[in-house]
Amino acid sequence: MDDVLGPVFAEGDKETAVPALVSEASGVVLELGPGTGSQLPRYNTSKITKVYGVEPVVALHKSLREKVKASGLTDVYEIVPCSIEDFVERKKHGIALESVDTVLSIQVLCSVSDPDEILRPLYALLKPGGQLIVYEHVKSKDVLSRIVQNLYNRVWPFFVGNCHLNRNTQQSIMQAGDWEKIELTIPTSEDAWTIFPRIYGRLWKK
Q1: pTM score > 0.85 for this model?
Q2: Which residue intervals of 16-142 are DSSP H helices?
């Protein structure tokens, strides 16, 4: 599914905060669910020393490798074929506690099995002062929009890669650990009508 939807979403992201956010990734980067590599052209390669693409869907790896090569990241990019919770496989690839400068999550937390169980290990992997970069859609604060989200969510995950429309991702992020600095844009009253309100920004580990 991501080989079709990934490029579509990436095209739609051009006019959002996503390109600027991805360009802020630096040092040792862990990208959560890179799919076919839609975000790779947006990296500032001068800031990158290593990228771990944690992608459990092996069927996407061929397209991902092609995009890695096209983006000039072959020497620094490593595909990690597991979920982030797989401690043994992570360790094989050298991803240790407090070894990562940047965790990048672009429209991924909506589709993982349990955002809380994902974010806590991600926080632990960050170095002190390391950053989490996120762009995610979340549960609406508007009652009517939330009802629509809940109705859509009965079928939506089956057609869009387990994507859930009604997750309180902001809460999960804030509770993942102790953040020293937070630059997070949250939905405003003007976003109340949409079923895809977004949170996005950067958080730094204490």
Answers
A1: yes
A2: 18-22, 61-70, 87-92, 115-125
